[in-house]
Amino acid sequence: MATPAFNDDAMTPPSPVRSQPFEPNISPQPSRSSSSAVSRSLRYTLEGSSAARTLVISPTASSVSQSSGFSEVTRTEIERLAKNKCWACMSGITEACHVIPKEDKAIDFWAEIGLINFNLRSTANGIALCPNCHTEFDRAYEPGIVFIPVDVEYFIDFELMDQERRSGDSSLRRQVPTSEMYRNHLVEKQMIGPEAAHGLYRPVFLSTDCLPVAVGERLEAFGLTQPKEWHGAPLASLRRAFTALACSKIYVVGDGLVANLRTLFDLYFKPTLANPVNLGGQSRPALPAERLFPGGDDNTHPIKRRKLDTLRDEDAEEGNWKPQQYDVRKSVLYLEPEWVLGPSSTAEDAVHRFASLFAQS
């Protein structure tokens, strides 16, 4: 057996390669399809000041997955409506985010009592945020960012009138303001001009961890607390606002706004004769009979609301579906869509609509 020949050069270990310092890619438009994009830098410069701070943003897996429920056209439209800037911090790196996330366990209940009048997969349930603001926005128990309609009293008055409308007929479905109704109300109150396309919402930073220190300490100076337009459904923003009521820093918005939000929350969810909310069979203190039925009419019965049965996926697969059952979540997800580009749209229509985004990519 021949002895293998060894080359002296082959036995010499390779010279160590000096690692190069990491230089983050600061391209203004990184690839949207890459979930492992490199860190990006955003620079905030206070007008009139030479000082500048840099914020490094890394998209998280959660933020990437949260936007996956939108179609590509819907995601692009959400970013176009926000002028391709983060709605909260105005940075130039954005992704389309759900306002009411797919994992929200309250969707069925909100739909049952008539608080969702929009398609959860449409632009009405979307907002453009940078990855850092998206992370703060999606913190379930202590959200760092929420946004609230500037006129919560409008929603209080609307619900009171709607409860009066429904008080004489238990079969009537609750009505809640749409984005167009809210916008028209603000125009009538001269809070916005007739040229405004959407209603006003107040951004609230309950945490400034997503911002550079210089920015977080001077939110007003950077204009980040000013009300701004948002195109979506007002009830979606209120869902986030109600969650923030349990946040330890909620009083940063002021006592009056907190009180109005709590009042509206009670109007929507507290069971009364004018607002018979199904609590899913859970017990609650019973009111005296004379308060429930003044006059003592034995033929009077409390208003009963049939509990909606949610069709489980396994039931559908096994063929156990019953006609009286339906999936509330699916009925909400597939409400009549708001077309961005309808069946009659052409490629030229798409180019004209998204030209500003194409120019920046």
UniProtKB/TrEMBL annotation:
Q: Where is this region: Disordered?
A: 1-38
Compositional bias annotation for Low complexity: 28-38
Specify the domain of life of the species encoding this protein.
Answer: Eukaryota
Pfam families xref list: HNH_2
Q: Where is the HNH nuclease domain?
A: 93-140
This chain's protein is named HNH nuclease domain-containing protein
Origin organism is Penicillium desertorum
Q: What is the lineage of its organism?
A: Eukaryota, Fungi, Dikarya, Ascomycota, Pezizomycotina
